[in-house]
Design a protein that fits this description.
By secondary structure, the chain is mainly alpha-helical. It has two domains: 33 residues; 37 residues, no CATH class. It is 51% helix and 10% strand. It is built from four helices and three strands; from the N terminus they run αααβββα. It has a three-stranded antiparallel beta sheet with strand order 1-2-3. β1 and β2 form a beta hairpin. The chain is elongated, with a radius of gyration of 20 Å.
Length: 96
Amino acid sequence: MYGIRKAVKKMNDLISRKAVIDIIHKEIGRTSTFAEHETQINIEMAVKELPTAYDVEKVVAELENMTTVCGAGTIINGGYIGRNRAIDIVRKGGIE
């Protein structure tokens, strides 16, 4: 079973809802009682109903609407970054 890690560094990190549901599905196949199975199904439904913490497309739209175009790039808080690069960063979520 997937236990709680000894040291949880961040509780507000963004995780994949699909990855959590995949873990639940894997555990459902290992359950031995109806009560365990029912509990896991209830957890899955609760995960599916969690509000979205980060909407990539909304962030991209804000970047497109709120940045000042300067040649081929964008000025954000006085610094220069290419608009497309900023959008790529948002879409990847910091994962390379």
